[in-house]
Structure prediction request, 194 residues.
Amino acid sequence: MSTPRGGFLRFAAVFEGGLLLLAFGFGGLAGIDPVAALRFDLDGLVYGLAGTLPLYLVFQWSYNTHVASLREIKRVLVDRLGPLLAGCGMADLLFLGFLAGFTEEILFRGFLQPWFEADWGWLGGLVFSNLVFALVHWISPLYALLAGLTGIYLGFALDVGGERNLLVPILIHSLYDIVAFLAVAASYRAGLSR
Prediction:
């Protein structure tokens, strides 16, 4: 069953907006400002754009590989998200990618990572926040593992350049999601034409 474009976009906005409410709500309770490390500067922009390239290359390889377990992940993504994403235009996919990157990074790198760091140190913050990241991205055990590793990469990106900047993982996550959404939509459309 296909969800109409408008309904899908509204659902995504409400869901992702809920993540912001969680970040700011729990952040307020814990005394953590989830956007305290968000700086819009040239260094953050450059690191974010450059940091997207390794994930893009890994995505391209994994999305086009013949490894059976990775092909199964692709099939599940195309089957589940393809009908929804294929009904979206380029502006919609850009919106969805930036929305997901922005809200998820504020929750996971802006709130959870510093929250865990308070008790477990930098490494504990990195590991525990990304265990949660992996669990909420659970489609299969392998997909959760890959999401967790991606989260660790994003957690490292938070501190790239020596000064914490949330803009870096936001850009990497957003651009990665846009690439993935475009690929899934294209795969679904191509499947329909065969």
About this structure: The mean pLDDT is 94. The radius of gyration is 17 Å. DSSP finds six helices and no strands in the chain. Residues 93 and 182 are 7 Å apart (CA to CA).
